[in-house]
Amino acid sequence: MAGEPVNINEFEELARQALPKMYYDFFAGGAEDQYTLKENTEAFRRITIRPRMLVDVSRIDMSTVILGNKTSAPIIVAPTSSHQLAHFEGEVATARGAAACNVIMGLAFTSTCTVEEVASSCNAVRFLQTFAFKRDIIELVVRKAESSGFRAIILTADTPRLGKKEADIKNKMIAPRLGNFEGLISTEVVSDKSSTVEAYTAETLDPSFCWKDIAWLKSVTKLPILIKGILTSEDAIKAIEAGVAGIIVSNHGARQLDYTPATISVLEEVVNAVQGKVPVLLDGGIRRGTDIFKALALGAKAVLIGRPVIYGLAAKGESGVKQVIEMLKNELEQTMALAGCCNVNDITRSHVKTEKESFLSRM
C-alpha cells in the first residue's frame, strides 16, 4: 500500500499483509457463516445522520465520564485476546498507545502479557475483563484487578463455551502462552480437539455460571461490574436487577453465536429497557467516527473498539494503536462539527434516522 493509511480499512489491509494467515484469520474472522460479522459493520451504513446547520462549532469537546473516569473521547479499547500474536510487545504496546490518547483500555484476562506487566507499563485508566470462568480463576482476576489499580471488572457473559470459528479449525489455531494462567492450569494444552484454543477454554470456563452468580461476584470485589454481551431488553432488565454498574451491548465481535443481530441494531432496545439507570456502551462494528456518532445518538455512553486496535498494533505496534485511536477521534470530531454538535451531550436521538424510520417515512 502506497503512503500512510487514511482509514481503518487500510489499517486492516496492512495487518493482513503483516500477519501470518493463521493469526490474521484468528483476529479478523467470525463464527460459522460470518453473517453477523458482516452485519456488525453493514448495519451502520443503513443509519443516516441528520445534521444541524449554522451552529457555533468553533470548539468541539469530545470528553466524557465513564463510571467516574474522565476520558478524552467516548472510546474504550475493547478487551481482546492474544495481542502478542499481532506484535511482540503485545498488550503493553496497546496500553501505551491507549494511554497516549487518554482513552480507557479494557484488558482481557486472556492476554499474552500479564496484568502486572500491563499495569506497570504506564499510568492510565483500565478495566479488567473476565469470562464466566471457574470461581477460583475469577477470584484471581479480581485480586489482580484490585491490586494493580484497575477501575472496573468487565464480565463477558456470552461465552459458556467457545463459538465455532471455522478458519481457526482449518488452520489448527494454536493457543498462545497466556501469562495470567501460569500456575493455574497447564499453559501447554495438548488435545485431540480441532484447535488448542478450544481445549484451553474447556479447561477454564464454567458453563453453569448464571445470573445468580453475579451476586457472588459482587461479594468478592468492590470494583464496579460491567456486563458484556447483552443483546435484548429482557437480559438488560435482568442485568439491572442483578446490580451491575453498566451494560455493554455486544455479540463478541460476531465470534460466538452467528445470526445474532448487529449490535447497533439492538442498541436502542437495550437503552430503552435500562431507562438511564446505568450507562450503556456499544461494542462491535465501529470503523468510522460517523459510526461512533450514530451509536451516541442512539443512546450509547461510549463505544468499544477491538479489531481496529489489533490492526493498528499488527501494522505499526504502539504507534499504530495510537494512530488508529487518533484517527477515530479526529473523524468523530469532524462529524460532530459538521452535524452541529459541540459536545457529546449535544448528540441526540434526533440526529439520526434508522432504516426502520426511513422505511416508514416512505409508506
UniProtKB/TrEMBL annotation:
Gene Ontology molecular functions: (S)-2-hydroxy-acid oxidase activity; FMN binding
Active site per the UniProt annotation: H252
One of the protein's GO biological processes: defense response to bacterium
Domain FMN hydroxy acid dehydrogenase: 1-357
Alphabetized UniProt keyword annotations: Flavoprotein, FMN, Oxidoreductase, Peroxisome
Catalytic activity: 2-hydroxyhexanoate + O2 = 2-oxohexanoate + H2O2; 2-hydroxyoctanoate + O2 = 2-oxooctanoate + H2O2; a (2S)-2-hydroxycarboxylate + O2 = a 2-oxocarboxylate + H2O2
CDD domains, A to Z: alpha_hydroxyacid_oxid_FMN
Amino acids binding glyoxylate: H252, R255
Protein name listed in UniProt: (S)-2-hydroxy-acid oxidase
